[in-house]
Write a structure and sequence with these properties.
Length: about 280
């Protein structure tokens, strides 16, 4: 494993674009802390975002992993360009000539994906812990380290997403087209979701529940469902909803089923990458 990772990071070290994108990605992750500086003072109206409870334990784990997951597209570019460069610079063929098997080649890419996801998770953990210790109203150990399942869900989400990108990179061989392929698939899932809503429009049962029950098995939808939006969970939002006669009832927990579905798709993507590479005459 270490030998395969050493080969991959040696390639990344000499790829300027990948280094720049990685720096931008982790820089943006660190910039989550700047949310605490958002402040509006307009006459008698004073608004400080950090005082709204977004960095309270354990809510901070939910909020920060949701925001950080939005930034994953920057590392997706690193993953797909990593594969595109293998074909452009003929390093894939050279690795195989030097004795690396196709299975080891795919594993080296997958290990890199896992490392990227792991480092990102640790990075978000440290930032969230620091912000929580500074701004949270609750500092009991039991509260601080509750709901850490959001970090695990974040890790699984990144591994699944990057594995999808890896598969597209091998399938299409061009980074720009691979990213476009991801966008096309997102559009396809959205169209299917819209069609399901249209199909169930006359159903007596709750339409959204029936649609969600089907869509949860699609890869991008499953990844999205791992960490549900946290904004409606805020106390301020709940209070406003009560004032207008609405009640926000939503399950924000990390679903075991969603984790299983994403892990299943991760296996499919990695195995398909290997099968595709094994079939090709390089």
């Amino acid at each position: 494993m270490l030998r395969l990772l050493d080969i991959e990071f040696h390639k990344l070290k000499h790829n300027r674009a990948s280094k720049i994108l990685s720096i931008i990605y982790f820089g943006l992750l660190a910039s989550i802390a700047l949310i605490a500086a958002i402040r509006f003072d307009i006459g008698p109206v004073k608004f400080h975002l950090a005082e709204q409870g977004i960095f309270n334990f354990p809510y901070v784990w939910h909020f920060n992993t949701y925001i950080a997951a939005i930034l994953k597209f920057f590392l997706l570019l690193v993953i797909v360009s990593m594969m595109a460069n293998e074909y452009s610079y003929k390093t894939l063929k050279q690795n195989l000539i030097d004795g690396l098997s196709k299975k080891e080649f795919i594993l080296s890419k997958f290990y890199t994906v896992v490392v990227f996801a792991g480092v990102s998770t640790i990075f978000v953990f440290v930032i969230s812990l620091i912000l929580g210790l500074i701004y949270s109203d609750f500092n009991e150990i039991g509260i601080i380290f509750s709901e850490l399942e959001y970090l695990f869900a974040f890790f699984i989400k990144l591994v699944g997403f990057f594995s999808f990108g890896l598969f597209l990179g091998i399938l299409i061989k061009r980074s720009a087209f691979a990213v476009a392929g991801m966008i096309v698939w997102l559009v396809v899932e959205s169209l299917i979701k819209g069609y399901l809503y249209w199909s169930f429009r006359n159903s007596e049962s709750i339409v959204s529940e029936k649609v969600d029950a089907i869509m949860q098995f699609f890869p991008l939808e499953a990844m999205q469902n791992l960490i549900k939006e946290p904004f409606s969970r805020l106390g301020a939002v709940q209070s406003v909803a009560k004032q207008i006669g609405e009640t926000v009832v939503k399950d924000y927990s990390v679903s075991i089923l969603n984790i299983i579905v994403v892990l299943f798709w991760t296996f499919i993507f990695i195995y398909s990458s290997y099968a595709l590479l094994k079939k090709r005459d390089l």
